[in-house]
Amino acid sequence: MDRDxxxxxxxxxxxxxxVTTPWLADRLGSDGLVxxxxxxxxxxxxxxxxxxxxxxxxxxxxxxxxxxxxxxGAGFAALMSDKGISRDDTVVIYGxxxxxxxxxxxxxxxxxxxxxxxxxDGGRAAWLAEGRPTTTEVPERRPREYPVVERDDSVIRAFxxxxxxxxxxxxxxxxVDVRSPQEYTGERTHMPDYPQEGALRGGHIPGAVSxxxxxxxxxxxxxRTRAELEGIYQHEQGLSxxxxxxxxxxxxxxxxxxxxxxxxxLGFSQVRNYDGSWTEWGNAVRVPxxxxxxPGKVERR
Amino acid sequence: xxxxxxxxxxEALAGIVDDFRAMPERQRLELLLEFSRELPPLPExxxxxxxxxxxxxxxxxxxxxxxxxxxxxxPASPIRLHFDAPAEAPTTRGxxxxxxxxxxxxxxxxxxxxxEDVPQRLGLASAVSPLRxxxxxxxxxxxxxxxxxxxxxxxxx
Lengths: 301, 157
Prior knowledge:
The complex is a heterodimer. Chain A has helices at residues 7-10, 21-27, 73-82, 100-111, 123-129, 160-168, 181-185, 226-236, 254-265, 277-281; strands at residues 18-19, 33-37, 54-55, 90-94, 117-120, 157-158, 175-177, 209-210, 244-248, 270-274. By secondary structure, chain A is α/β, with parallel strands linked by helices.
């Protein structure tokens, strides 16, 4: 599919990763385009969705049901086939909560190297706010052939050991904590609304700077402009686009949103999402933790 | 669990649990959606005193509830349940709708006897995810606590 030529998107490093609501509205039903809805609320799609959109659920479909991991290459291929998605389709993902879960799905698609996957800027809220059409009709899509491509965890995914390696580097490598300020300081061991994803210890990874994910979203749920985002991540936080950055949150969904911002909107070249995040780190034995508002550092003892 | 999943529940709630479990998993989501649509709106008199409602932190979307017991301090009094949940949170509304349909109007003492694990008995874990189900457990926990306070039943906890 063609790129969205919107001037706001054109300012971003990789404008081909975003589309606007008018672009999508004009192309609904086109061959080679699949629209996916990925929401936090598992029933929201059923209440009405973009015509022709297919539901994908981050929890029940993109995760392995047993191991804490994502589906494997065969599982992803089967899921894509079942949803009627070909490897050469343009996939546009949108969702609730400023595209938080849509960004998570896009990040998982990227682990499997799906070539053309984009977000709808503003997500579900923008589509509805503009009074665009919705339907409760679930499309019947015929299964497609989708190749089994092994997941590549080496480029955009970080594990606990990668974070420990970050900490061991005397020159320091940036870590970005995208949770709420209360979770960062250790005042809370879970998000206000998510106690079941708690941790035994509160605080943050030593040296991590605090940039709550939602700062990248404007009031209408769309991404802030490139200049505004540069102001936050590059000028205020001093992050370099060439730095080896690891972002984390609680289970890796909010940090997928930040990963998208740094990688696709600002053009950072080495950003990884630590999906183990605080539910791993805050429960792991003998990993260093800092409490309070300052990034802090590893205490050698 | 089969056959006993609803034996110790009040009649209306038992019927709901049985309905869910009798359905194939995909259809359980549709039934949950029906409950979300049937959740009555917050009465006007409560909408104007919203600070009396208790937020349910376990839900992924803002949900508020209040229990009324009339006459108060009487375990035999019927309870009235009121919820306020946004339309864009149908799963949360669905859980609230189940509890409303299953518990509203029952004597306080009967509500207090409802086991805590009702959310796990609906057979929704794989369709909805255990994570999301914990929101319903949070509602039930708070309902029972409010009932205990307002019906004058000394709290075990």
